[in-house]
Design a protein that fits this description.
Elements lengths: L7 H5 L1 H11 L4 H5 L5 E4 L14 E15 L6 E8 L4 E7 L4 H4 L5 E11 L2 E5 L2 E4 L8 H6 L4 E4 L8 H15 L8 H7 L4 H9 L4 H31 L12 H9 L6 H14 L6 E6 L5 H14 L3 E6 L2 H15 L16 E5 L5 H13 L2 E7 L1 H4 L7 E7 L6 H6 L11 E5 L6 H7 L4 E5 L9 E7 L5 H15 L3 E5 L22 H10 L7 E4 L5 H12 L9 E4 L12 E6 L7 H8 L9 E7 L6 H11 L3 H11 L2 H8 L16 H17 L7 H21 L1
The site of adenosine-5'-diphosphate has 15 residues, from α12.
């Protein structure tokens, strides 16, 4: 325990400590030191009052222009109104029954005012602000005098119970008692990048003498955030790679060779080279932990399937984990189809060197499940497809060699730990993670930094283009009719049509409580209407999250099978079809109330069409107004089919905190200055340095300060995780 872990109560007194804890969750010296100023007010430079918006909580530096005191009309008492100014704009500041303020509120004095901006009869005001005037006779407040003696005044995120200058005063006490503190960043690294040490940085960010101080402090503290995060990730990587795994050498195995020979297309260069990376990983005696990312339709599933076949060739088993039952069932179906007779071991016409693909889902009948489990335990099934429950349940494998995780979101460190129990004699299976959406490089380095990353950057050749149009139904109501005509034409050509709605229907929450807006389209209502009117001559089906897994599976089967008697031509569904659904004959994707969906989501859904050599069309139906932000998002989606570009844009439109939160829980609170999307250089540099430090000293025996900094961060992160769960 160091001075940094000291509770603030003893240092600052109970009242201040309590206010800090309540407002910001600040409890220790370390917490407080990490509460950085939001900006700095410079003596003599007044805040720009015109830029403040209604409802905003602000701390402004302004000058008093005039003061008036008048009696209230209805009640006893007085109102003091001061007009404060930055030289151009004005704000009205009012106090009720605080006659004593007349003494200090005099025209020409300046100070800090903190409160919420509101509009009172067309006049912008700060009602009952907290304020402190700069020294000029407020000798009765020596603390304020000292705090504002400097030329640069830090402005902290403040709250109703604790002001910016109270935080500033608290910071001064802490900084004065801090003494020397150790630096988690090794001296060599600091010197290499010309960064200041930690104690200096903390002093300079909280008590700068110039804006250059602030700059230098920020640079250093930002690097520290990146460095500590990368050190944690490097440690995890080192930990994994020191575990034992069985080497799975598969060079030229019959199953993979035969499969490749039967492929109706040639592999892309990326598929070949990433395939080789994976085979090399599998042949090592430490577990692989690799992430394969690529745009929708880039052929990730195929890469994963080839890895699974290689493992079966070497005598092991592979498990494929899908995030939902619908996807598990579908993976099972498409893998079985792609393998053909190679998946029919033991059956008539099955290849001798073939295997079986087992499916395990929670909703299977007991007898079916029992048979599948038997095949898994005997090793009869080389490939096992299921949901994540597969590794949590007591499913026993004969020899689990590889786990493929489709879609990373819900697969964290805990799940990876659970894998240990699945493998034999203390070894770990190899792990391959496939993301559903492309992620910008810096996010990948930050969130998946404990995995090796392979990126499929090209789409297979000859891929039919997907055209996307925005259909603004509010401006041109006739467009809607045209959409259904188009759907009917596609069906006439033997193609399939997806229609996505934001709601299920009737009795769900409505998704829309604002009575003035027209209600959002719902699966049940729209399907009923289309089947009764515009699409009465085709077969319309529905799919949504309230159906049982059997029902969903049945619907997907009927939609996928062109020739089934009970086939479905047009599927009206919720976003359950968002990820990974593969129906090659689907050519049209209609998304109703498209403005209700995020960019990445729209891109995912659009990727469901144009997969089978037929050109795809995606129609984004919206009643949002021309020029509105949501219309611009839709226009962006329509303008490019580059998923990396869109995901970067998507992330930029969200708040930084949500960026990491959206991809994986945790890992947010430790980042205060680092902006993951913008600080690519810092992250890359920090990653190289952290790798070097951990490489030389994996347990950090020679770096105790770094070790305890990381422990503090990991604790913070897991609390975060618990709060979310
Ligand atoms: P992803 O999982 O990356 O979205 P998939 O692996 O599902 O993409 O591939 C999409 C479609 O492209 C599938 O129908 C697949 O069979 C096909 N495909 C994969 N690789 C190739 C290739 N090299 N050439 C042509 N088609 C391919
Ligand atoms: Mg896929």
């Amino acid at each position: 325990m160091t001075i940094l872990d000291t509770n603030l109560t003893g240092v600052l007194g109970g009242k201040t400590a309590k206010a800090l804890s309540k407002a910001f969750g600040i409890n220790t010296v370390d917490d407080l030191l990490h509460h950085y100023p939001r900006r700095y007010a410079e003596r003599g430079k007044l805040s720009d009052l015109a830029s403040l918006r209604d409802g905003e909580s602000v701390t402004v530096l302004a000058e008093i222009e005039s003061v008036t005191v008048r009696a209230m009309r209805a009640r006893r008492g007085s109102i003091l109104e001061a007009i404060i100014t930055d030289g151009k704009g004005r704000l009205s500041v009012t106090f009720f029954n605080q006659k004593w303020r007349e003494r200090e509120f005099r025209a020409g004095r300046s100070g800090l005012f903190s409160g919420e901006i509101s509009d009172y009869r067309g006049k912008r005001q700060l009602a009952h602000p907290q304020c402190v005037l700069f020294p000029e006779g407020i000798d009765d407040d020596p603390e304020a005098t000292a705090a504002f003696a400097g030329a640069i005044i830090p402005v902290y995120p403040a709250s109703g119970t604790i002001t910016s200058w109270q935080i500033q005063a608290a910071m001064r006490i802490v900084l004065d008692t801090l003494g020397e503190i150790d630096d988690p960043i090794p001296v060599g690294v600091l010197e290499r990048h010309g960064l200041v040490d930690r104690a200096t940085a903390l002093r300079m960010i909280h008590r700068p003498e110039s804006m250059d101080d602030v700059e230098a402090a920020r640079e250093r503290l930002k690097f520290e955030e990146a460095f500590c995060l990368q050190a944690i990730l490097a440690q995890r990587r080192a930990e994994f790679s020191s575990m034992p795994a069985t080497a799975r050498e598969s060079v030229g195995g019959p199953l993979l060779t035969d499969f490749d020979a039967r492929l109706p297309f040639t592999l892309t260069d990326g598929q070949v080279s990433i395939g080789q990376e994976i085979f090399d990983d599998l042949a090592a005696t430490h577990p692989m932990h690799r992430l394969v990312q690529g745009d929708v339709g880039s052929g990730k599933t195929l890469v994963a399937l080839r890895a699974m076949l290689a493992v079966v060739d070497s005598g092991g088993q592979a498990a494929l984990l899908a995030p939902t039952e619908v996807l598990a069932v579908q993976h099972h179906r498409s893998i079985t189809r792609m393998l053909g007779e190679l998946a029919q071991r033991g059956q008539l016409g099955g290849a001798d060197h073939g295997t079986r693909v087992a499916l395990l889902t929670g909703s299977q009948r007991t007898a079916t499940r029992r048979k599948e489990l038997l095949d898994v335990i005997t090793g009869e099934a080389g490939i096992v497809v299921g949901t994540h429950a597969l590794i949590q349940d007591s499913v026993e494998f004969r020899d689990l060699a590889l786990v493929v995780v489709d879609e990373q979101h819900r697969f964290g460190v805990e799940q990876r730990a659970a894998l240990a129990a699945k493998s034999r004699n203390g070894t770990r299976p190899h792990v391959l993670v496939m993301t559903a959406t492309p992620i910008p490089r810096t996010i990948a380095m930050t969130v998946f930094g404990d995995l090796d990353i392979s990126t499929l950057s090209e789409l297979p050749a000859g891929r039919s283009p997907i055209t996307t149009h925005v259909v603004p139904v509010s401006e041109k109501p006739t467009h809607a009719a045209r959409v259904w005509e188009r759907a009917s034409e596609e069906v006439a050509h033997g193609h399939r049509v997806f229609i996505v709605c934001p709601r299920i229907g009737d009795d769900d929450d409505g998704g829309n409580l604002d009575a003035e807006e027209s209600p959002l389209n719902s699966v049940i209502d729209l399907a009923e209407r289309l089947q009764g009117l515009e699409l009465s001559h085709v077969r319309v089906g529905t799919l949504h999250g309230r159906m049982s897994p059997e029902e969903k599976d049945d619907i997907m089967r009927r939609f996928a099978d062109v020739n089934a008697v009970d086939g479905i031509d047009v599927l009206v569904s919720t976003t359950v079809i968002e990820v990974g659904v593969d129906v090659p004959d689907a050519t049209l994707m209609v998304i109703m109330d498209a403005d209700r969906f995020g960019i990445s989501q729209l891109h995912q859904m659009r990727g469901r069409v144009g997969r089978g050599g037929l050109p795809g069309l995606c129609l984004l139906v919206t009643s949002s107004e021309n020029g509105s932000p949501s219309r611009e998002r839709l226009a962006a989606v329509a303008s490019t089919i580059d998923g990396f570009e869109l995901s970067q844009l998507d992330l930029e439109l969200r708040r930084e905190g949500d960026v990491l939160g959206a991809v994986q829980s945790g890992r947010r609170s430790s980042l205060r200055l680092l902006e993951v999307l913008r600080d690519e250089d810092v992250i890359a540099r920090a990653r190289a340095d952290a790798d070097e430090v951990i490489g030389e000293d994996p347990t950090l025996a020679a770096h105790p300060t770094l070790l305890s900094a990381l422990a503090r961060l990991t604790a913070e992160e897991s609390t975060d995780y618990l709060e979310k769960a």
